Structures are given as structure tokens and as C-alpha cells.
Amino acid sequence: MEKGSLISHASSLFWEGHGVPWAPHLLQRPGEKTPQPSPPPENRHSPGRCGCSPSQARRRAKDAPPAQGGRGTAPAPAFSGPAARAEQITELCGAKRVGYFGPTQFYVALKLIAAAQSGLPVRIESIQCELPLPRFMMSKTDGEIRFGNPAELHGTKMQIPYLITEKNTFKRMDDEDKQETQSPTMSPLASPPSSPPHYQRVPLSHGYSKLRSSTEQMHPAPYDARQPLVQPEGASTGGPGAKPPRHQTSLIRSFSVEREPQDNNSNYPDEPWRITEEQREYYVNQFRSLQPDPSSFISGSVAKNFFTKSKLSIPELSYIWELSDADCDGALTLPEFCAAFHLIVARKNGYPLPEGLPPTLQPEYLQAAFPKPKWECALFDSYSESMPANQQPRDLNRMEKLSIKDMADFPVPIQDVTGDDKQALKNTVDEVLPKDMSEDPATPKDSNSLKARPRSRSYSSTSIEEAMKRGEDPPTPPPRPQKTHSRASSLDLNKVFQPSVPATKSGLLPPPPALPPRPCPSQPEQASEAELHPQLNRAPSQAAESSPTKKDLPYSQPPSKPIRRKFRPENQATENQEPSTTVGGPASVAAAKPHPTVQKQSSKQKKAIQTAIRKNKEANAVLARLNSELQQQLKEVHQERIALENQLEQLRPVTVL
Amino acid sequence: MAVCVAVIAKENYPLYIRSVPTENELKFHYMVHTSLDVVDEKISAMGKALVDQRELYLGLLYPTEDYKVYGYVTNSRVKFVMVVDSSNTALRDNEIRSMFRKLHSSYTDVMCNPFYNPGDCIQSRAFDSMVTSMMIQVC
């Protein structure tokens, strides 16, 4: 339904609902006095008959706290009270002339309402001056009434389609309003076609502080109201760039509200460049998500990927980087990162980028002002372990959501956000900051995973409990390297017997998967080796006895396995007398054979400990042998290198420097 | 002091060129362009030697009656060309060298910016301001 038809229906219903016959002449003669029959007081009682904006506007005017006086010049003071003012406003804004409440008229109307509320006479001139935003004390019942219209409908059937279409159009108009009326304090006094540029210019003149003060007023009151009406409270999207209004609205709201508790009435010259505590927390968490170590850097590419998600243009991002990377090293420390993030947030809110880094964003200032948070929280330990399945990218829009979430005081979902954002907002709004922190360790250290996260993901998926559970995981990893190390040594044995292979130190370093603990049957054989250990009399192996843990059992078992296999054919000749660097283990294994039954008598614990001791000794022996082998190889490689260098010297052309 | 400053990429296209806007800038562009030949000549004159044996500062490339053109090459074959006014006799070689060093360090700062793709035009404000400071010092 077009606006044109909307008007007529709306107007007709309005007047009908109020028991006044529709007077079409009213629409044609704008300057005329308002109709003689005074609108009955039922105006106030049956506001719900129409879901259209004209009635909305009027209702709003009525809802607004009555101000004294303020009668328009043109309409005769036939009526008193808010209803009359509503009429005046309607008339003044041109709705009557045009026949409908277009955006232009809507803005003017709201502006007039603001004027009326502040006590100014309801005239066009009163719009010129800067006014606080109009306050609407609307309750949720309005919405109910609006949607309950069909139920209340007693009228003819033809009213029903009107209402339905009205609802649709009203919603549509709301959307338009959301998109267009970002700040109703502007009133396009020019004709409608030229109004958009006009009211876009105006907010700049108002200044941001003005908006902020007005947002402060707006915040406490209308959060119960329907969001679309409260929409204009703070968005300064009339500012530079045509950023998506929704994002900006949410940002600006969060931004202004963030500042609200901090410096309520003090307008520092660098106020937008001051990082609040909440913001700081958020930035720090983001930093941690990119780089778990708070004292190190975020590399350039990582930061680039991250900041690119903010959807700012590359030149702007480049400039922000230039500002924030104070030491120009291509990496961001934590204060630099916070500064950069803050600049991005500010830019998205419409603030022009400064010429130089503001003093409050200097790294030294930031480091001094905000001492490092407690990194030793358990969540930090969970970084290495917490690799949740939801490796989703962290869109910087989440930053917006988070900054809103930071408020956490405003549970009302922000409807002016896009669907995705809205969803995430609804989720995030219910969460608290700590959940944000729990969120961050959830992402892996690899920042590349930041890209792939769908936007619908929200923090509701993680909770503090989950994070704490992740925090319990860390203790397990450390033992692993030992196992792998042992496994590596066993592999090396295989390599050792293939001397042609230049098994370099890589044999020890790559952690192959550890073997599962060997089954018990092998223990008797190994237990018998314990007897042989005293015979072996190897000093390094004694040290291994100090830590016969269960882990060492599997630790030492793998090496013995190949040892046994390899040395079985040779075990006859080799006995304990072999040099300690070699077959000590295998020798024990070999000698174990003749004494398979001796150890069976000892208790299982003793067995286990002794087995462990044995394993360690074997492992030590193996490692020592490997070490010698590798040393030998190293020497050979050295010699090769020297030879090659000599050749190079000879081959290199003689150049005169 | 400098009348025109240009940064030329390895492939000999300009990454950044800026002149004192009082004169016909095209003339300076031509001068820089022709000086590239001289720069290449000087580079190749080093022979097949290793890069680190080559001097970065190339010195006076060629003088004209009004201007002198100085050159500087980085290790990555990025060339800086500077045109100075001949009437500015107080300008010594050392000062030119220092100016080139400043240029070089600003250039590396630009490179450090991850949002800068090598090969793009240089749009860094810090770089601009540094060049402006060099050009404004007209005696």
C-alpha cells in the first residue's frame, strides 16, 4: 500500500474512531482552523483504532507530558490540551497539506513534539533551534493495542483490510523511518525531495556532545517503548559516510552509553578517544583471542585479517594502523592494539579519524592507565587446550554487539539491527562480560580461524562453566611430549641399524604417536631384566629410578619392544659386558630370557616399579647410544661442510671489492 | 629543499611522486622519468656483484641548468629520486644523503603497514608529511 492510500485510510479511521465524520476538506485547506467540533476526549481513550502514523503522532503528542501554552498561530485555539497540539503539529509539519505522514512530515512532527515538550511554542521557527529529542512515554500496551486492533474491531468489514494494511505499512514505514530518520531533531524545512541531504547535514552541526546528552535522556525512559520510535535517540549516521544505519545506531548507542557512566557531563576534548574500562576489557579479550600471550605482538597479517572484518575501507585501516603502530614495526602490542581497535570503533561510529594519535591513545598512556589485567585467570590456561568445534570467524560486527552487550543493562533487543545482528544481539545482550572472556579462550591460537565464523554465532554457545571445564584440560598435555619423545627414540633405533640413512637429530625431535602401554605378559621378561640391571651398573640409568611413575611404564616400554626384536638374534653373544652406549637394554633383554620365572614371585607393585626402572635405564641407554651416533654423524657432516666450503672458495670468482 | 621527490618501484613505475606545486609538475615528472635510465646505468655498473656491495646512495645522477637530480636505490630495487634546485648551493651531499635516509626509513615504515600492498601507491599520511617537511625547507 502506498502512502497515499495510507493517509486516507488512516485519516478516515482516525476521525471515525473519534466519532467525528471525516472531513475531507481538512486535507485540502491546510491553513484552516481545525474543525469546529472539538475532538471528543475519546481521542485519548481509543487511540488504538488506527495503527497508522498520523494517529501515532497524535497519540505521541498526547502522551508527551503536556507543556504549557504553545499554541500554534494558525489553528484557532478551539481545543486545549494535548490533542489540540497534536493537531497543530500535524498541520505544521505539513501532513495535512500533503495528506500523509511522509518522512519529512514525520521529522517535522517529531521536532515539533520536542519543541512542545520543551515548552516552546509549536511553530515552525521553534524547530530551528537545537532541541532535545522528544520523549515518548509509550508503554508496551501501545503495541498490543496496535496489534490487537482487529480484535477490537467492531466496525465494518472494510475496516479490517485497512487495519491490516495499515499495520503492514506502518511497519514498512517504521523500517523506512529506521533507515531514514536517524535523527528526528533534524527537520527538513525544505520540500521533501531535498530533505534528505538537508537533515543529513544538520547532525554535524549539532555536534556529538549534543547527541550524547540527548541520548542520556533517552536511555532511561523509552526502553520499554517500541524500539522504532526510540530509534532516533542517538544514531548519528548523518555523519560522514553512508554506513549501515543499524550498525551505527547500535554502535552509537553503546558508545554513548559507555561514556555515560564515565564522564557524564564533562566533555573532554578527547572524549571520544578515551577508552573506558569496558572497552578496554573487550579489546584485551580480542587481543587474547588473536595472541594468547599478552606481552607479545600481534603480527601484521593477523591484525590485518582481524581489522579487515570491521568493513572499513583499506585506506582508512591503513591510516588507523599508521596512527596506532607507534614504533612502526609491523606488529601490534597490546596498547597499540587497543588504540587501533578504539580508532576503528570510533570510525565506525562516525567520528573522523584524528590527524595524530590522541594522547589518550598513546601506548605509554594506555599502559599506564590500564595495568594489565589478570592474565593468570584460569581461562588463560585453557588457550592451549580449548579448541572448540565452533571455530568460527569473529566478525567485527561482533565488536558492535559486544559493545552493546557491555551495557548489559538494557535487555531490550535492539530492533534496528539487521537480522543477524539482532539475533546475536539478543543472545549477547543476555550475557555478561565474563562470558565474553570465556569466549576468547575458546578460539584457537591460530587466528585464521577467525574468518570462518558465521555471524549468527553468539556467546550463548559458551558459558563460564564450559570455559572452566576447558580450563581443567591443560594439565594433561605436558606429559605427552615425554611419551612422544620415548617413541621417537624407539624409532631411532630402527634408523640406527640403517647407517646409510643420515638420521639426523630429527629422529629425536618429531613426536611420533606414542604406543599404548604394553600388555602385562611382557612384564615378566622385563622384570627379569631387573636382575641384570645391577650387573649393568650404569650410572645414568640410576637416575631414572627416581621417577618410576606409571607414565614411565608406557614411556619405557616402547623402546624395549624394538630392542627386543632387533637384538633377539644377537642377544646370545652380547651380554652385559657391552659398552654402555650400546646394547645395555637389549643385553638385559637377552639375559632376561634365561630367567623368565624369577620375578614372578615379587609383588606386582615391586614388579611395576622395577619394570619402570628398567625401562628408564633402557631408554637412557638407547638415548646415550643415539647421542653418540649422532655426534658421529655431526662430525661427518662438519667435515663435509668444510670440504664444500673449500670447494666454494676455490670456485668463487675472484672479485675486487 | 627538494623540489620534487619520487619513489619508483622496482618495475620502474612510480609509487609516489610529489613536486612543489608552483611549477609545471609535468616537467618534473619527465625529469624523474629520464633519470631512471641513469639510475639503471649506475646499478648495472656495479656489475654482477652482490647487492650488499652496492652503495645505496647513487649521488648526483645528472645536472641540468636549473636542477640537479639525485638518486638512491634500496636493496629491493626501489628507487628514490630527488630533484633539487640548482640555485640552492648550500645543499651539501651529506644533507642529501640524510634526506634519502629519512625517505628510506619512512618508506620502510609504510612497508610495515600490513594494509599496504607492495606495489600500491603510497598513501600514508606520515610519509606525506615527511616529504612535505623535506620540500618545505626551501631556503
From TrEMBL, chain B:
Sorted UniProt keywords: Cytoplasm, Endoplasmic reticulum, ER-Golgi transport, Golgi apparatus, Transport
Main location (coarse class): cytoplasm
GO BP: any one term: endoplasmic reticulum to Golgi vesicle-mediated transport
GO cellular component: cytosol; endoplasmic reticulum; Golgi apparatus; perinuclear region of cytoplasm; TRAPP complex
Pfam family, one: Sedlin_N
Source organism, top-level taxon: Eukaryota
Keyword Translocase: no
Keyword Transport assigned: yes
Location(s) in or outside the cell: Cytoplasm, Perinuclear region; Endoplasmic reticulum; Golgi apparatus
Coiled-coil parts of chain: none
PANTHER family documented for this protein: TRAFFICKING PROTEIN PARTICLE COMPLEX SUBUNIT 2 (PTHR12403)
UniProt record similarity statement: Belongs to the TRAPP small subunits family. Sedlin subfamily.
Protein name (database record): Trafficking protein particle complex subunit 2-like protein
Gene: TRAPPC2L
